[in-house]
Amino acid sequence: MLNKKLITLMNEQINKEFYSAYLYLDFANIYEEKGLLGFANWNKVQAHEEIDHGMLIYRYLQDNNAEITLMTIEAPNVKHAEAINGADIKGEKLLGLLKAALKHEEYITSLINNMYCVAQELKDYKTMQFLDWFVKEQGEEEGSLQNLLIKTQLFGSDSSGLYTIDNELAARTYMPLQ
Ligand code: OFO
Predict the structure, then answer these.
(1) Residue located nearest, by CA, to atom 1 of ligand 1
(2) DSSP conformation class of 178
(3) For labelling alongside 138, which of 23, 42, 77, 98 has CA 20 to 30 A away?
């Protein structure tokens, strides 16, 4: 039987993963509106992956006969937060969106690390092993956003550089988790 505190944290994490999907869909919508279809594609694929993450935790709770409580998903509203309504997406605005995504992933990493700490304190080795995948995944997600941010800072300030990056991002495809 899973510990009550862990069950609460895991239910909250399902909500955060689904919120992440919402957030990436919101980013995708902005990129799409501005004609950056590769950036939009990358974010849509990410949204699919976030749903998979939420579903992994959902299944883990089910498999352990723990109660699942689905909570309200917050609205992201990136457009409002970044004040890019009607504005040019290039330069600082584009970097601002990428930095916002990276900051969000750092926050998600902190939540995963906190769950891991609780599982460790409880000597819940099964849950620690389950969370190992998420620890690795968060490292990869932060890494790929950092790389994209650096690449965009270095090469995205002129139209041809941005066009190349956008084309690269158009190649990302969604691979469902097994
Ligand atoms: Fe689920 O990894 Fe991003 O948020």
Answers:
(1) 50
(2) -
(3) 77
